Structures are given as C-alpha cells and as structure tokens.
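hey can u check if this looks right to u? its 171 residues, i copy pasted from the old doc so theres a chance i mangled smth
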Amino acid sequence: MKKSLVRTILTVVVIAIIAAITFDYPLIIVRSKVNNATPHFQQDALFKPLDALNFKQGEYTAYLLIHRTDLTHLPNDMKRHLILRSKDATTLQTLQSNFHFKRMGGSITTCKSDLLLFKNGTLIYRTKIGLEPGVIGIEEAETGFLKSMDHAALAQVFKSFQPVYTPILVL
C-alpha cells in the first residue's frame, strides 16, 4: 500500500514537471486565502495598501507572478521571468514607501499578473498588477484600476526581485 502511494505521488510530480518544462510554464499553486481584507479605499485619496505593515517584525516574502503575455511589455531592466521573489526587508520597505496609487476613473486594462505578499508563510495581500514601461498599476475589486504615483520607483524595486527557477511553486 505504501509503495503504491509513493509511486502515485512520484508519478504526479514527474508528470507536472514534464508538463511545466514542455509548455515552458511553471505550475503555481496558491494554497492559502488572503488572511486580511484589502484596506478601505476613500474616493479622491491615495490608495496605500501596504502602509499599515511593519516589515521589521516577522518574515515577509513578496512574489510577482508575471503572466506570459506581460513578459514582452515589462518596464525596462526588469527581469523577464515568470516568477520573481524578494525576501529582503530593505527592498520590501522600499516597495511599501512607493506602493501608492490613484484611481484613474475607470478600468483602463485587465491586469493578468499577480503580486502576492506573505508574512510568516501566510498570504496577507494579493492584487492583480499591470507592468508596462511608463505605467504600473493595480486592479482591485473595490476600486478598479489604480495607477502608481511613481512608476519609475516601483519599477526599480521590482528590478531587484530575484527569479525563482522551479517548475512547481506551492505557496
């Protein structure tokens, strides 16, 4: 019984790895749901969803899951990779200080990439993100599309994220 279970698990893992390599696309499994709700957005105010976080307490990790169609339109100097990650507290504090957005008065685009933020292994923030030269924005259910107040600074932060080389990523 134990051998057949191990064989089955091993077969599934091997098939997933072969599929990921064949289709040149990593398999990303996000197991956790967002632990806390998106901060409330006030009309005509800046949306600062990361301001309440203290990156000096706890272990934080940010992931950029870049959709294949977004790879060709990334801001200059950003790594062209499907999964980018940062665990560096200084980088995440810089992200926090530049993660300010303003409503654009409607949905400009549909964002396909994701930004996920974990604290001590728990997903605490998730948003759709659009990454293009000259424009970085997020798309929230409550607010629609929001444009970054300083896309150059955010692009610089995302430039320091490191590629994750794995065919399967379980978060």
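The beta strands are 27-29, 60-65, 83-86, 101-103, 113-119, 122-132, 135-140, 144-148, 162-163, 168-170.
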